[in-house]
Amino acid sequence: MKKLKEGVVAPDFKTTDQDGKTHKLSDYRGQWVLIYFYPKDDTPGCTKEACAIRDQMADFKKLKLKIFGVSTQDAKSHKKFALKYDLPFTLLVDRDKKIVTKYGVWGKKKFMSREYMGTLRTSFLIDPKGKIAKIYENVKPEIHAEEIRDDLKKLK
After folding, report:
1. Most buried among 64, 72, 95, 149, using CB within 10 Å?
2. What is the pLDDT of residues 113-147, one digit of tens each?
3. CA torsion 127→93→1→39, rounded to 10°?
4. Helix 144-155 crosses helix 44-55 at what angle (to 10 degrees)?
5. Which of these is catalytic: 10, 33, 46, 132?
């Protein structure tokens, strides 16, 4: 698995969101972007993380941050998740696992001594030039939004 580093250009991708709209990362050059990878819609940790980001949206809007959540569920699952928790940001579909693979966040996980492959909870803060400014690994869902907000304030 290829490991991305801070300072390199973030891999471009093209995919659709919960509403079927197409997004290409390169279309967002010139602005700060957060790509946060999460394992599964509507699970306890992923819900905590998404709601914490939602609750910081006023600050993120002031900081002009574009936010994308990415998981391997389909658009229908993303839409249901976004509506249930009133998520004001875009959820991207990665059914074929191309994006999680490009970003090196598809890997071995362990739960109750069982190993399996899945999405590693990781986020990438991308600067207006398209370079990775900060990588967050082993994200703690409850405090992640505040970490992002504080780091973005320092980096801007």
Report:
1. 72
2. 888 899 999 999 999 999 999 999 989 999 999 99
3. 100
4. 40
5. 46
Catalytic (active site) residue 46: yes
For the stretch 3-51, pLDDT in tens is 899 999 999 999 999 999 999 999 999 999 999 999 999 999 999 999 9
- The per-residue pLDDT for 110 is 82
Phi, psi at 101, each rounded to 5°: -70, -45
Other beta carbons less than 10 A from residue 118's beta carbon = 18
> Which of helix, strand or coil describes residue 27?
helix
Do 34 and 139 meet the contact criterion of CB atoms below 8 Å apart? no
One-letter amino acid at 14 equals K
CA distance 143 to 82: 20
Q: Which domains does the chain have, with CATH numbers?
A: 29-155 (3.40.30.10)
Rounded to whole angstroms, how far apart are CA atoms 151 and 156? 9
What is the enclosing helix (H) or strand (E) of 36? strand 32-37
